[in-house]
Amino acid sequence: VDHKFQINLRGLIDLLSNHLYSGPEVFVRELLQNGVDAIRARAALGPGFAGEITLDVHARKGKPPTLAFADNGVGLTEDEVHTFLATIGESSKKAAEGDRPTDFIGQFGIGLLSCFVVSDEIVVVSRSARPNNPPLEWRGRPDGTYSLRTLDAEITPGTQVYLTCKRGCEDLFQPDRVRELAKHFGGLLPYPIRVNAGSSSVVVNEGGAPWRRRYADEKERTRELLRYGREVFGADFLDAIPLRAKAGEVDGVAFVLPHAPNLAARRTHRVYLKNMLLSENADNLLPEWAFFVKAVVNANDLRPTASRESFYEDARLAACREALGEALRGYLVDLARNRPEKLERFIELHHLAIRALAVEDDDFYRMFIHWLPFETAQGPMTLGEYVRQHSVIRYVPDHDQFRQIARVAAAQGLAVIDGGYTYHAELLAKYPELFPDVSAEVVDSTELTQSFEELGLEEQEAVHDFLRVADSVLRPFRCSADVKKFQPGELPTLYSTSSEGRFLRSLEQSKEIADPLWAGVLDSLGRRERAAAPAAQLCFNYLNPLVRRLAGVRGKRLLERSVQMLYVQALLLGHHPLSAREMRLLNEGLLALIEWGVEAREGGES
Amino acid sequence: VSEHGEEVEELLDRAEGLDEGPAKVALLEEAVRLADTHGDVEEGYRARQVLIRAATFGGLPDRALVAFSWCLAQSDREPESFPVGELLWEYKWVVGHIYEFPQVGLGQIESMMGDMARRYAEAGSTLRAIHTKGRQLAIHRGDRRSAAREHRALHSVPRDWLSDCPACERDADVEYLAWCGKDSEALEHAGPILKGYYTCAEVPQRTYARILLPLVRLGRVEEAMAWHVKGYRMIARNPNFLTYVADHLTFLVLTDNLARGVKLLEKHLGDALATPAMSWRFDFYLASRLLLERLREQGQETLKLRLPKYFPLHHAEGRYSVKELEGWFAGQLKELAGRFDARNGTKAFARKMREHRRLRGLVSPCPLPGRAG
């Protein structure tokens, strides 16, 4: 008897194939899902039953290939066939919204629909495991017509679905591709999935989830898991960390990335729901700080979102995330205690992740801080090495300042750390809270200058005039002048400024080219509470022979020029861009010096 | 490519790998200085373009303004080399933050908006974005009539390529409605954002914060709690959201989660002390004062806190008197309110101070999910 669907099936298939499913290959996932559901339902009927799934690929000369999908699950009764057909109609709207029926029969219908994307006709042969049900054969066509009849043959309970390859889908019926897809979607399933093609017969999910298998020892486990990681993600990972969480019934494995990840990128993982692949892009299963791993995880008790891309954000997921974070933390702690070489390699690649976590987490901080490398005026060293030698942690919170003063600080015997890298300053500031025997100090160049040796009374008198001239030359540049003694002696000056000072310099730069409206706004912006103090200081080094000689020069013009040139030189040394005015100083100064040189020479010769 | 060009490139690359925030801005400033040191205007322009975005979304609007003014001047000088296109969009970021600096005069702000409007009109824009900024300024100054006028004006012209994205526009409408006291309307308007139909770089997290108070006022505290849990996580790491962190802190006080509130105070006070945007600081101090006031009323005399060294009341041993802290915040608030009101020629900030304090009447305890306290 021929019946008619009450829905526009063609429209629905089109909708499914183009919008709802990520690609036509999901028909394999849907068939596997149907098979698994049927096997579970049959297992619930009684013990002593072992589920299995078989896919037979037939290449046929001159005709399109076919695929037969068989499970030995619970099978369908005639009533159930009618129900799933009805469900297809009812659920069409729901399916379009990404919602799926929760009962087995309803699911079956929706799953079957996806087969129309690759096959023009679907034949289902099924026999229910419940007693007194004859085998049935259902033939459905995408125009919405189908036929149903009972079969005379004697067949064992279960369901077979026969598909005939649609034009354009040949690729999906290639034996290699079928094996690959069956493994991709069902690789974790606890029932054997066999793919037969010609003379070949392969179980694609031999052994089930690799992290659930038994291994001779830890080493073998790691080796096998890493091989699995390479197979799944195509990368040679650094290590494999087993994952387990009670909340959500989650287990899996996290692979330590073999390269430093881009911190701003989305971190996604491959997740399975009840051992069926759910998504390759789930991004909310692991804590945010876990950016050093890529994971494969199965969850039996988490809710997928409607888009089936990740899990629904609820208390259970939060608890699960916490537990998985705990597993990762445990791994790191074990590294720190027992495997120093591996730790070193890990830190090299992932120190950013460790630093980020240590900033937030005190226990973690205690565990790792001494292993972390820092840049110091004496070269790179771990903080552990540093605090063995020093009871005060001195650091400069940004790069440019560090570069400015590292050489001088080193000459004063100060071991200064560059805190300008991401999280460095926060980590260093936190140290004394957890290790009270050591204190931490921010060194800024202004303070450093204050620690320099003062001049004696007589020396002060000697530089008095020089200093007055220097001050008046530098005032227009919001810079004050001072003379002190510091190492190294060959350095004539130290220019010091704060980040506020540097900001004001950039503001001046913009002002130089801005129109009056913007110049006015910039002027206002530069007026801040702290603006009263000069933003920068040029400290002359009395240990430097040139500076000493300059202090004795009486010609005011020569003195002014010299101060200007030393100022510009100090700016250049500290990588400060010159403003137009400063550039003018440099140009005029150079010309004047040449002129003086030439004059002196001519004077000498004549 | 020149050697410094490669170095600039490397700094830009490194910055790209970082989350929004001061660390990223610092790298880009270094790139700008490097280009400038070599007198390379083109590299300087390019690096500043990246800096403007990072500073805008990383909580340093003063840095953005300075870099922007330089680019705008270069573009005015040589429009062929530095076309104005991107700058028109960035202009909105700068104008959207300019009133957060009380040292900038009202006349200057208005002239700047005039300059922006002129440039937009020249480019053929409907000026919808200009009215959005106008409404924002009116809200800041507490000028209801101008705000209503700009609100009508902005909805009477069609969207164009310079309008804020639909998510931002809707979120700003929610802000306006809530500011007018139309809580139910604001929430209704926020509906599509809350359902996830509108998103952008900063929406929905801004919306999650700004609907907390309207929800509390309507007695829908449990609903608000869900948005708090979801929203705070999204903004906790970026100082650009300080104002919104303040909304969350106020919410914690109003739901009697004072211990958690203290955690937030401890975590974000450094950002508030460092921010160049004084109105964000003001908002955060308001929430902090409310927290301290509640603590004092409940008999708490001291607090153990880890506060930054540059906090004026900083103690090495970390034990603080609640009363002393409260007094300090109140003093700072008064000073800030005074500066803003003087600049704005209104009394909006003084009023805001009084009104925020009265929120204590709304307290309705609601436990945080998952953990106790």
What does the model show?
The complex is a heterodimer of chains A (606) and B (373). By secondary structure, chain A is of the alpha+beta class. Helix content of chain A is 45%, strand content 21%. In chain A, the strands form five sheets. In chain A, strands 1-6-5-4-7-3-2-8-9 form a nine-stranded mixed β-sheet, with helices on one face. In chain A, strands 10-11-14-12-13 form a five-stranded mixed β-sheet. Chain A has a three-stranded parallel β-sheet with strand order 18-17-19, sandwiched between helices. Chain B has 373 residues and is mainly alpha-helical. Chain B is 69% helix and 2% strand. Chain B has a two-stranded antiparallel sheet. The longest helix of chain B is centred in the C-terminal third of the chain and has 23 residues, at 322-344. Chain B is globular. Chain B starts with a helix and ends in a 15-residue tail after the last helix. At the A-B interface, helix 7, helix 15 and helix 16 of A face helix 2, helix 4 and helix 6 of B.
Short summary:
The complex is a heterodimer of chains A (606) and B (373). With 606 residues, chain A is of the alpha+beta class.
What keywords describe this structure?
heterodimer; A: 606 residues; alpha+beta; 9-stranded mixed sheet; 5-stranded mixed sheet; 19 helices; elongated; B: 373 residues; mainly alpha; two-stranded antiparallel sheet; 18 helices; 69% helix; 2% strand
Q: How much beta of chain B, percentage-wise?
A: under 5%
Neighbour order of strands in the largest sheet of chain A = 1-6-5-4-7-3-2-8-9
Q: Summarize model confidence as the mean pLDDT of chain A.
A: 85
Greatest chain-chain interface? Answer: A-B, 40 and 40 residues
Q: Please give the share of residues in helix of chain A.
A: 40-55%
Shape of chain A, please? Answer: elongated
Global morphology of chain B: globular
- The helix/strand class of chain A is alpha+beta
N-to-C CA distance of chain A: 127 Å
Described by its quaternary structure, the protein is: heterodimer
How many runs of DSSP E, i.e. beta strands of chain A?
22
Distance between the termini of chain B: 57 Å
Low-confidence segments of chain A, given as residue ranges, are 91-99
**Helical run tally of chain B:** 18
Q: In total, how many beta strands of chain B?
A: 2
Order of helices and strands of chain B: HHHHHHHHHHHHHHHHEEHH
Profile the largest sheet of chain B. Answer: 2 strands, antiparallel
The fraction of residues in strands of chain A falls at 15-25%
As laid out across the biggest beta sheet of chain B, the strand order is 1-2
Q: What integer value in Å does the Rg of chain B equal?
A: 21 Å
Global mean pLDDT of chain B = 93
